[in-house]
Structures are given as structure tokens and as C-alpha cells.
Amino acid sequence: MFKINEIMVYPGYGVAKINREVTKEVNGIKLKFYELKFINKDITVLVPRDGIENSGVREVSKEEDIIEIFELFCETFKKEFIEEINLISWNRRSKEYQNKIRSGKIKDIARIYKSLKYIEKKKILSFGEKAILAQVESLIAEEIMVILKEEEIELIIKELRKCCDMCLAGSGEKIINFLKIDMKEKKIRV
To answer: Does some domain include residue 1?
Structure first.
């Protein structure tokens, strides 16, 4: 169960702080909600306290999870994936991406990011692809920002882009070694 002032992740929206508990009357029944204030967006959401686990809300990722994400960036794409990207329509990929974003699983979000960064190297992204790329980039960066206790999301995004680009270019092993040191020092630098 979550507590007031706890930082957590709300699927599709990002990292939020539980500001307070609010009681609202819905259809004559008094229900308790958590008020979530997002750290990088001017949005407040009410989530039913009793059903919070069913909403997909989860704890912020751990340092090990972030290192695994960067390891995922550095894995080579399988031939089947590259063929699939060329064959599957954008509409179908978009639906798959949206479902994964709604799941809130950081590794699924990282796979989307890596895929779109790969596609971006091969062609100009469509408006929809750019929008999803920006969304997943922000979701990943927010979690890294909280883990590292960094206040500048732009700095995290810049380093995230650089790391992913280097991994896609084949320089991944060097990045992973740096990251393992950096995470202990609570920073990312490439």
C-alpha cells in the first residue's frame, strides 16, 4: 500500500507524488482517493485508494532496472524485428505501443524507445512516431531523474539520447561499464 508523500509511477503519465487523501461521494457512497501530482506535468489525478493496485500504479524502478534498460538498448536487434518493422503498418505498431505504455512496465517502454530510435536512424519519423518517442523518452527520463535525485530532466533526456544512439552505433559495452559506476555515484555521464 502506498502512503502520503510517496513517489510512484502512474502508467502512461509518469512519476507522481501522492499529495493527500481525498474523500469524494460517488453515487451516494463515500470513497477515498489518493491525489497524485505529477513531477513534470501540470496534472493532478485522483486514484481510488482501495483499487490502486488495479490501476497499474507501481513503485519507481530501482537502479538495477535502469542498468537493465541500458543493457537492452545495447542488445542487437534480431533480423526478424527489422523485417517486422518494415512490414507492420504504423497503425498496428501504434496500438501495440499504446498498450505497452498503458501497462506501465519500464522495460516495455524502453523497448518502444529503442525501436523508435532505430527507426529514426533509418527514416524521418511520422508525427505519431515522434509523439510516442517523446512520451516514452519522458517516462524513462522521469524515473532516472528520481533515482538519481536529479532536478534537470533536460539533462537526463540529453544523456538518454546519447546513450541510446551510442548503443545503436555499437559502442554499448563502454556505456554499460560507465553506467554501473555512475549509478553508484547517482549520475549519468557519457
So the answer is: no
Q: Is the alpha carbon torsion for 4, 38, 178, 185 positive or negative?
A: negative
- Total domain count for the chain? 2
Which is nearest to 16 in space by CA: 42, 44, 39? Answer: 39
Q: Is residue 2 part of a domain?
A: no
What is the pTM assigned to this prediction? 0.86
What are the grid coordinates assigned to 114, written together?
Answer: 529503442
3-state secondary structure of 41: coil
Let me know whether 126 and 160 are in one domain: yes
pLDDT tens-digit series, residues 129-141: 999 999 999 999 9
> Quick one: cell of 29?
457512497
Convert the pLDDT of each residue in 92-131 to its tens digit.
Answer: 999 999 999 999 999 999 999 999 999 998 889 999 999 9
